[in-house]
Automatic annotation (TrEMBL):
Residues 48-122 form the Thioesterase domain. Pfam families: 4HBT (PF03061). Keywords: Hydrolase. The keyword Zinc-finger does not apply. This is Esterase. It comes from Candidatus Acidianus copahuensis. The keyword Hydrolase applies.
Length: 143
């Protein structure tokens, strides 16, 4: 794990409790690229011992968000769209998720994301759009 990946993982675990809960590890972050690892745990599985599709989408959303973060020239970002095609059931972990920025515009970033098992088999592929926030941050209504 490189220094940037260590920093991003630490920040995310402080800011986004789902990352800590799901035990995701940030392996690599470079400009326009991110790779994370997800363990195989029965708590993340659906019937039949395969990783739940919602967990796969969450991992892909997080990975695409990290890749976007690496090129974000604004102050925040949100997922605008995420389309995922599930190709194979995933049950051989740990799993690797890679996100690669394929286009950065003024307010949006497009990321291609793959979810693979320990043998390198692609279980899902996705395409996501992240909206870059330039002038205010997104916060939950705490009232």
């Amino acid at each position: 794990m490189d220094d940037l990946a260590r920093f991003v993982e630490s920040l995310l675990k402080q800011e986004e409790s789902i990352i800590k809960y799901l035990d995701f590890k940030v392996l690599e972050v470079n400009k326009g690229f991110a790779r994370i690892e997800i363990p195989y745990k029965k708590e993340l599985c659906r019937r039949g011992g395969v990783i739940h599709g919602g967990v796969i989408m969450t991992a892909m959303d997080i990975t695409g968000g990290i890749a976007t973060f690496s090129v974000n020239d604004g102050i925040d970002q949100v997922t605008q769209e995420l389309k995922v095609n599930f190709l194979e059931p995933m049950y051989k972990g740990p799993f690797t998720v890679e996100g690669k920025v394929i286009r950065k515009g003024k307010t949006t970033v497009i990321v291609e994301i793959t979810f693979k098992d320990v043998e390198g088999k692609i279980g899902a592929i996705g395409l996501g759009t992240w909206y870059i926030i330039k002038d205010k941050s997104i916060e939950a209504n705490k009232g």
